[in-house]
Amino acid sequence: MVKAIPSQIVIKGFTNQWQAFKQRLPIKLWQDFEKLIEYARKHPHPDPEVNPFQQIVMAILIEQEKEINRLQIKLKPGLRKKCPRCHSEWNNDDSKGGLCPDCKEYLLFFLPKTDF
């Protein structure tokens, strides 16, 4: 059985390995590099059977996917629904209605008429 290495040690080693790469980047990209490292720190790396580098890359990809989804919702306000009964918010691709995930009430939404 392979012994698990704590996440922070793995990430520290990863950061040290990529330090030379970071130094060659333009200074304006250093903050972006550090943001990727922060993404990796948000996720534990519990599986000792999986390559730590792959786990870090997957953690970064997951966080980037979450950020893309968050920005898409911001750009398409019609995807964000708010329940008038319990005031919870959720994403809904159905523009005509949806079931509130909290109070389970089915709600109808009316979109403004658009001319094409």
Describe this structure in words.
The chain is mostly helical and 116 residues long. It folds into 2 domains: 7-75, no CATH class; 80-108. Helices cover 46% and strands 10% of the residues. Helix 3 crosses helix 4 (52-75). The mean pLDDT is 77.
Topology:
Blueprint: H1 7-17, H2 19-24, H3 30-41, H4 52-75, E1 80-82, E2 89-91, E3 97-99, E4 106-108
Antiparallel strand pairs: 1-2, 3-4
Helix pairs in contact: 3-4
List keywords for this structure.
single chain, 116 residues, mainly alpha, 2 domains, two-stranded antiparallel sheet, two-stranded antiparallel ribbon, 4 helices, elongated
SSE order = HHHHEEEE
Biggest sheet layout = 2 strands, antiparallel
Discrete helix count: 4
Strand order of the largest sheet: 1-2
Low-confidence stretches: none
Mean pLDDT: 77
Please tell me how large the radius of gyration is: 21 Å
The helix content, as a percent range, equals: 40-55%
Oligomer: single chain
Looking at the structure, what is the overall shape? elongated
Give the beta-strand count: 4
State the domain count: 2
Distance between the termini: 63 Å
Strand content: 5-15%
Class of secondary structure makeup: mainly alpha
Short description, anyone?
This protein is mainly alpha-helical. The protein is built from four helices and four strands.
